[in-house]
Write a structure and sequence with these properties.
Number of strands: 14
CATH superfamily of the largest domain: Periplasmic binding protein-like II
Strand content: 15-25%
Number of helices: 10
CATH topology of the largest domain: D-Maltodextrin-Binding Protein, domain 2
Shape: globular
Distance between the termini: 69 Å
Number of domains: 2
Structural class: alpha/beta
Largest sheet: 3 strands, parallel
Strand order of the largest sheet: 4-1-5
Helix content: 40-55%
Radius of gyration: 22 Å
CATH architecture of the largest domain: 3-Layer(aba) Sandwich
Length: about 260
């Protein structure tokens, strides 16, 4: 009888713990609302996605989309800036609620994170110096060097074509390395390169190739029950912002074209 009693108590304790864990996992959105803020991680150095303007204010497409999403959730948006390779580590350790930094959805990332509805669609540009003719396609990257953020989509794509990648922390550093001949090429979002050239028309760079298909840009969240209600709320916010024309408006403002739709 004593053994049965202990077994029953153990089962009851395990069930209570599981119920408590499940309840806690479902409380991320409630916790955000209780605290009155949602914490987004971003680089803050990647114009026009997320950067500081001439007055030092944080802005950009991602930044403003994040603020509008927070508004839809009824909370404030808090942005924490950091280097690319630390954004996901911070998400894993629950320092941030989400990452909003032009993150492209990949099979590898989707295995580890849940993603929101896409809020932008982009192609990848292959960029070289304007006087460099040895690279005209992605296949020409074999044995060449590129500059890209560590573990970014662009780094992985460059490596898949046989390039050696040198790590950088910002787009301006990337272009400096390319212009000075320290690397042969770089891969980046097409719209980011066009924006850079619009601001610096004399920059000695050129786009020589683009990926055929556009990638989905979404907001990664921790996978599992913990983020389920938050993901649904963010999805609803993105859908509303698209229907209201806000995504198109911000896209035109920061990119000069509408990248908020798949077409």
């Amino acid at each position: 009888m004593k053994i049965k009693t202990l077994t029953f108590l153990a089962v009851a304790a395990a069930a209570a713990a599981a119920l408590s864990t499940s309840a806690f996992a479902e409380d991320q959105l409630d916790k955000i609302k209780e605290e009155g803020k949602i914490v987004f991680a971003m680089e803050g150095t990647w114009a026009p996605w997320t950067y500081h303007d001439e007055d030092g204010n944080l802005t950009g497409y991602d930044t403003e989309v994040g603020r509008l999403i927070a508004e839809k959730l009824g909370v404030e948006a808090e942005f924490i800036e950091g280097e690319w390779d630390g954004l996901f580590a911070g998400l894993d350790s629950k320092r941030y609620d989400a990452v909003i930094n032009g993150v492209e959805v990949t099979e590898e990332r989707a295995e580890k994170y849940d993603f929101s509805e896409p809020y932008a669609f982009i192609r990848t540009a292959l960029v070289v110096r304007d006087d460099y003719d040895e690279i005209a396609s992605f296949e020409d990257l074999e044995g060449k060097t590129t500059a890209n953020s560590f573990n970014s989509t662009y780094m992985l794509l460059a490596e898949s074509y046989g390039a050696e990648v040198k790590n950088v922390d910002s787009l301006s550093e990337t272009i400096d390395m390319l212009a000075s001949g320290r690397v042969d090429a770089t891969l980046n979002a097409e719209v980011s390169i066009y924006d850079y050239l619009q601001e610096r028309p004399d920059a000695p760079i050129k786009i020589v190739a683009l990926t055929d298909d556009a990638s989905e840009v979404s907001i990664p969240l921790r996978k599992g029950e913990e983020s389920e209600s938050l993901r649904e709320a963010i999805d609803n916010a993105i859908t509303e912002l698209r229907e209201e024309g806000e995504l198109s408006r911000l896209s035109e403002q920061f990119f000069g074209s509408d990248i908020s739709g798949a077409e």
